[in-house]
Amino acid sequence: MKKFILFFVMNQKLNDYDSAWKDIIEVLFRDFLDFFYPEISKDIDWSKGYEFLNQELKKIFKDHKVNKKYIDELVKVFLNDGSEKWIYIHIEIQGYKEDSFNERLFIYNYRIFDKFHHEVITLAVLTDDDDDYRPDKYAVNRWGFELNMKIPIIKITDYANKIDELEKSNNPMAIVVLTVLDSFKAKDDAIKFNLKINLIRKLYKKGFDKDRINSVFKFIDWILNLSDQYELKVRDEIYKLEGESMPYVTSIERIAKNEGIVEGKKEGKKEGKKEGKKEAAINLFKEGISLDIISKCTGLPKNELEKLINKKRR
Q1: Cα four-point dihedral sign 297, 302, 306, 312
Q2: Which of 34, 105, 191, 261 has the fewest CB within 10 Å, making it most exposed?
Q3: Given a cut of 70, is residue 193 above it in pLDDT?
């Protein structure tokens, strides 16, 4: 049975974004291909499902000496013509120019071919903000020998003049792209806060299912990362949007951990004891955070928090 592998590369700033991108790919795989590579998506028989083959990737790269800054996914899919194909998705977490980028993609492309002896297709989505950086070719031409690799590249900055189209799209990847574009404008927490709130509102209005909301929310939350003060205000705004139902608690868990609340609950540390929680609650209230959110963070009942706040005001 003839097989091929699609090798996908995503170039992004290195930070804690890797898990967010990994989640986007694994949860929104079809949306991802529908949005960036619709012709490929049309060839896939989605009714037969697909399979992520992460263990196979470990076999490919276990001896490859590289500075590991990447998320790797190997996905097996079936085509409409009944044949089995493999798609290799390689997400690169870095946002700077790399002179050897296309050479490295050629090496990875060959390593996959050498392992599986199937046709390999390499794609790339670049999320850096340099419009001129488009490493889409690798070639060797000498003494009659020719080797040419052309990579179909998607450049996120190309969507900057398609904002209206992104706003109208019902594909969750459109909000992912808007998030990356907004991250280029976010110079301080005040700007990032407004951008983040607007993106979350757009996400809610689309009416996506829970998995899509959680995945895109996580992406927004990590790409537009804020200080604890602003993150709690974001949680406050989300609470107003959805009441008791919080879509994703990434930032709240991080802030609670910083306050010592999470560790205290799990391990009985001093910071997590009731007095420590009360002190944390007072600090959060001073930052303008609602009692509902403080209650979620600390685990203290709302009526107890009201008494605590009133006592401090006397």
Answers
A1: negative
A2: 191
A3: yes
